[in-house]
Every structure is written in structure tokens, then in C-alpha cells.
Amino acid sequence: LVKKSYDQSSKAKKQGSAEYELSLKQSFLQRVSVKWENESKQSFGVVRSTLSLDLKLLSIDQVIQEDLLVTMESLHRESLVSEHLDNSQMRERGERINLLKTIGEDSMPSLREKVSGSDPQDREANMATYLKLKAFLIVYPKACREFMNFLLDYDRLDDRFSMVATALTASGSPEAQTVLREAIDKLSADEVKKQRLIPNLSFNHRPSAETEQFLENLAQDDTSELIRGTAHRGLGTLAQKVREVEPERAKKILDRYAAALKNSDQKDSLIENLEVIGNIGLPEQIAIVQPYLESADQAVQERAYASLRLIPSPDAYAILITALKKSLPERTREVIAEALTYQTYLDPAVLLELKSHIYREKNIAVVKHLLQSLAHNSSQSLAIDIIKQYAKDCGHPDLCGYVNSLLTAIQQS
User: Fold this and answer.
1) In which band, very low, low, confident or very high, does the pLDDT at 37 lie, cut at 50, 70 and 90?
2) Are 22 and 10 in contact (CB under 8 A)?
3) Which of 90, 115, 344, 404 has its CA 20 to 30 A from that of 121?
4) Helix 174-186 vs helix 191-202: angle between axes, to the nearest 10 degrees?
5) Which residues pair with 71 in a beta bridge?
6) DSSP state of 39
7) Phi and psi torsions of 340, nearest 5°
8) For 293, which DSSP code?
9) Cα distances (angstroms) measured from residue 313 to each of 209, 286, 290, 325
């Protein structure tokens, strides 16, 4: 926030109608008190803003790559009023304020200490540490590298490994992706940990071109079949993450695996390509996978149905609803019902169809999936009404407990 230091013991600086009162110590900023009122003309209108906050800065030995890492002691008030409000700017400012609040008085050393000393039994404290770490890495992306050792030194099942890997994924910065890529490279002899980190890299919500190329290289050249397969599926997930902001990039990946699917003559290859395509979730893939919905091989057929789960299209869930009525193997029907749980806004007519299915369905696993699908559509009162009525009508002990747990989760959300 402030990247200047002064030799004097104190200094006041005015800029327009803004006044900064700085207290300094040992040639670097120790504390900054800011009271600011300003009006400026922007392309979207006149912006009037007020800011009142106190910031406490870290000691000089905690400076990372020329950036002063600051922690917020107290944030009193910030408001922005505009004749023509820019929502994205307001949102970004609000998000940063919330991140600083989450970080609180923690610094990189204190967060490293908290991660190192995390107790596997104290889930609440671990979650609090994770949220602080995630916020810290978003605000200060250059600090990502300081946490790489947790990926290299700890077992993949260790909470410290998972906490750092997940925080790097959630932060989404190019720096975080670089750390994940370098960690995967350094773990060349540890196939299991490499496989664990590849999804973390592909689930990044802003995957870079470098990350895509890295996954392509792994998919084509890695000596491990396990790693190659994981990287292929990771490319499908990457395409899903960019499909809205960079549709052509996602379509290019879909086209590549659609061609591979068409040329597949082995069961394992068919399944792998269907899994990659299923991770993408573009409407165009319905026509690509449709021939495999009638496959004589049950495993191939199941992967084809599962590949429809992420497609936000009525055509996709219409196929799944219709398939539930067919005389298919029970396991296949369970896969179809599970695919419906990924749909978060189903038409009211579809919700009513799900209602009729849960009352006549004999397969407990299928009923649970359909109830979960209704719960995922709880933004619609109709879905909640169906679940509540089924809870009253339920006569199966396994289902009654399950449906009541869903209602509790909905009420708490």
C-alpha cells in the first residue's frame, strides 16, 4: 500500500485534499495513519471517496522482494460514491478490504509458523489458518515461493501439504502456478505427490498459457502412465476453467480430445478421452459423446453419461432424465443420477420429474443422488418443498436420516 521510506522521524504530506500522517522508525515506515477525502473525474463519472484507516507495517527483515508486506490493525471506514458507479472497481476494492481483514495482524513468518504447527485434530484452527494463508497469498503473490517447502517436505496426506497446495490453487496468481509447476518438476521421483498436485494446478481459476503447456508436456512426455493420464484429465479441467472467458481456448482442447476419441480403438483410450471431455462441460460435446451412450461396454457407456454432468444445458440433463427411465444396469443408473447432482439450476418441470422418480425408485443410491440434486437447486422454493414433503413421507431408515441431513444443511447455508 505504501512503498516509500523517509529519513526524518516524522513527516506530513498533502496531496490535493488528502493528508497523510506518517510516524517513522529506523528509516522505514513503522505506522501509517491515513485520513483522505478526495474527488476525481473518471471516464465513468465523478468519484467521491473517503478513507480512514490505520496500518501497522512489518519489520524490515520481513520485506519480500522490495514489497512492504503490511497487516491491517483496524479498518474504520471506506466508502466510494459515484454518479456512474463502476461495479468491478467497487468489487475489487471490497474484496481486498475483506482479505486484509482476514489476514489481520499475521505476517509471512507467523503464517509459516501456524502452518508448521497445525494440529490434525484441530479442524477449526486449521481452517482459520488456511483462510488466512489463502488471503495472504492473494494479496501478496510474491510470497507464494516462501511456502514451496511444505509441498516438497511433507507427505501428500499431511494437512500442511494440503493446506498450502489448496491455498496456492485458490490464490490463482501466475506466481502460485509457477510454484506448483516447479514443485511438480522437483518431485519427479515421487509419482504419488506429483499426481496429487496436478489437479491443484489444473483447478486454478485463471490458468496461464504456461500452465497449459506444462500439462500438455506431462500428458505427452512423462514416463509414468499414471501421470500422463492425470495430466490429460487436468487439461480437460483447465478447459472448463477458461470456457467462459476464453471459449476458443476451451474449444481447441475439446476438438483435440474429440479427435482422439474418434480415433480410439481401445477401451482404456475411449474411457480416458471421455473423462477428459467430461471435465470440460461445453454444449458442443453432447453430439461428440452421444454415440457412446449406447455402447455395449458398460464402463464406456457410464463414462459417456458421466461426461454430460458439467454441461449447463437443458439438452444435457434431458438426456440424463430420460436415461433414468431406461432399463439399464443399476450401477449405470447410479452414475446417471450422480451426474444430475452437478446441475445447480434445473427447470421447475425437471424438478417435478425428479420428485416422481424419488417416489417410485427402488435403488437407494439413486434416490440419494436425486435428493442431493434437489438440494443443489435449493435456491428454488419448489426444490425445498419437494425435499420437505419427502422427509414427511419417507419410510426407509437410511433415506430418512439422509433427507433430514440435507434439510439441516440447507437451513444452515
Assistant:
1) low
2) yes
3) 404
4) 160
5) 56
6) E
7) -70, -20
8) G
9) 28, 10, 15, 20
- Residue 214 cell numbers, joined: 506444462
Q: Which residues pair with 38 in a beta bridge?
A: 49
DSSP state of 41: E
Confidence band for 395, pLDDT divided at 50, 70 and 90: confident
d(CA 24, CA 65): 21
Placement of cell 489481520 in the chain: 104
Instruction: Kindly state the helix (H) or strand (E) to which residue 29 belongs, with its residue range.
Output: strand 28-42
Q: What is the DSSP letter of 58?
A: P
d(CA 130, CA 103): 10
Distance CA 96, CA 89 (A): 11
Q: Beta partners for 31?
A: 23, 56
Say which amino acid occupies 144: C
Q: What is the pLDDT of residues 158-170, one digit of tens each?
A: 999 999 999 999 9
**Contact in structure between 199 and 234 (CB atoms under 8 Å):** yes
At residue 75, does pLDDT exceed 60? no
Q: How many angstroms separate the CA atoms of 87 and 54, rounded?
A: 26
279 three-state secondary structure: coil
Q: Which three cell numbers stand for residue 5?
A: 521510506
C-alpha cell at 6: 523517509
Name the maximum alpha-carbon separation found in the chain.
83
Rounded CA separation 276/216 (Å): 13
Which range, of 7-16, 122-131, 356-365, averages the lowest pLDDT? 7-16
pLDDT digits (tens, 9 = 90+) for 135-162: 999 999 999 999 999 999 999 999 999 9
- Grid coordinates representing 279? 471435465
Q: Which of 152, 66, 140 is nearest to 107 (CA)?
A: 140
* Distance separating alpha carbons of residues 208 and 206, to the nearest angstrom: 6
Arithmetic mean of pLDDT, 387-404: 90
363: three-class secondary structure by DSSP: coil
pLDDT reported for residue 234: 96
Measure the CA–CA gap between 296 and 211, rounded to whole angstroms.
37
Give the H/E segment covering residue 220: helix 209-221
Is 390 in contact with 413 (CB distance < 8 Å)? no
